[in-house]
Protein 1
Amino acid sequence: MPLTSSARRASCERCQRPQSACICQWICPVTPHHQVLVLQHPLEVKQAKGSGRLLQLSLQGSQLVVGEQFDVAQLQDLLFGVWPGADQPVERVQPVLLYPETGQTASPPVMVPAQQRLRLVILDATWRKSRKMLYLNPMLQQLPRLSLQNPPPSHYRIRKAHRPDQLSTLEASCHALAQLEQGQEKERYLPLLQAFDGFVGQQAAYASGSPD
Ligand SMILES: [Zn+2]
């Protein structure tokens, strides 16, 4: 039996990628103050260069759900319901969408009292597909929005569809969390951002056909 080829095809249980492209070495566990919900567009699932799965595997207590148009009841539950294992059953959940203001919606600015926990909702998709996800899910349009203030330049240079001024899902999320946690432990996302640099390097090596 060609054991080597079947071993190559076998996928990692944790990151669900082929063993040969496993990204688990880059997982960098961080416990954010806020809850994180990643809504991943189906086209991102097989996208080797996508950072949404690495983000979700690193952020403890986060959830990742794949879809483009979500069932209303399911989305309601993801946004406002109590998550399994959550330690705050009575508190009202406040979901906030990480998305730039587009001018068409007048969403209230996000004010975060020191101890309040938010549920940061992240669309893991290309810019085009994220707009489609918003269009298809009016409940997402109605959420208050958080946009990044003075985001640093992206280290993400491996996706052609990616605008140079646009951060990867992982980078945008880490900067958003650090922004929300200002004055607390801003530095805690640095190790994950550094691990992400390693991931980018690995993907770039694969792309050039010379994985080490
Ligand atoms: Zn893996």
Protein 2
Amino acid sequence: MFVFVCAGCGAELTVSLSEVVLPPHARQKYGNGVQLPVLMEAGTFAVDPDPWGGPWRLWDEVEPGEAEARGIYAPVHALSDGTAGAYVIAPGDVRGTRLILEKRDGACCGLDGADGPNLACEACGLPVATRVDDCSLWQAVRLGSDAVRRLFVDGSHAAPPSWAELVEKGERTPPYEPIATWGGRAGTSHYWSWSPRWEAAAGQALAHLLVASEGRPVKVPDGPASDVFQRALDALLPAGPSARRAALVGPGRPVLDSGVDIVLVPVHPRTGRMWTTGGPAASAYPVPLPLGVWLWLVSPQPQLAMPASGGLPEDVLRDDPLPPRPNYLFRPDRGTFRHTLVRLPGVRSPWMRTVREALTQDWPAALF
Ligand SMILES: [Zn+2]
Ligand SMILES: [Zn+2]
């Protein structure tokens, strides 16, 4: 466990936290005016390796070779010169800070952090963090890697759970969920839609699938994986007879025979390591998926129960009536897709030209 302290005066700025993986939806902008939940589970933190927020430089102003040195292999609209390596935590885990009231320009329903750090250390006044809780953004506090220090506080280092333990726990992420609208009246302040988590996870995975395609069609397994990926793959890759085959591989799944070129594998939520497989599929291209999404893909639950209302306790779930399904086809999150794709060296492959060109132009609206 760690606590984070102010780099200026040493005051404690958080409760004790343990490190987990940054979720793929960390940078997602979802819907219009909706209220997204808190990004990080209470008691955890994740490191965001990439710069975040301003100041920005347009692609034309970036020196040749500079983007590549920063791990960006295809043109982007603008490059962030913000500080990299922020510690991302739940707002409720912050201690001893105050809001910098002037730093709220551009905010809509909450704070978007576009003005730079908006939380100061209560003891010494050093700007130490950025709180983000505006509409369409996941609520989080980003502690500046240059403004805080992390201190190890607990000698007993709990080993991360094994894959078998994680599978047994079976925390699946449902593909659709109620989305809260800002300021709606109780009872009418949500609508059912595709899960933002799924859209971001699919955006990240789609970028890997395109690189893994080697310019050939890709066929993912039938069922929910097909609903999520196949339409975008068919639109962005050439048609042809020799499709590369993708399979769902991971803990508790049978070892595959040959003929699998791409494996959709879970990421360990604590260590960030992808599942590795033996057998003929060991050399297949691994495509990362958050564990909760992967668990659902390998064992979908056909119907979700719905939160009950009307005189019943809040945590009672109904299975009649069932929640309404989203009335549009699934779309991977465009921003997460783009963020991932430009950081994969494979984006430079000749057969990625069409996709690369589309990166700087308008995407087919129906896909993203
Ligand atoms: Zn708003
Ligand atoms: Zn301080």
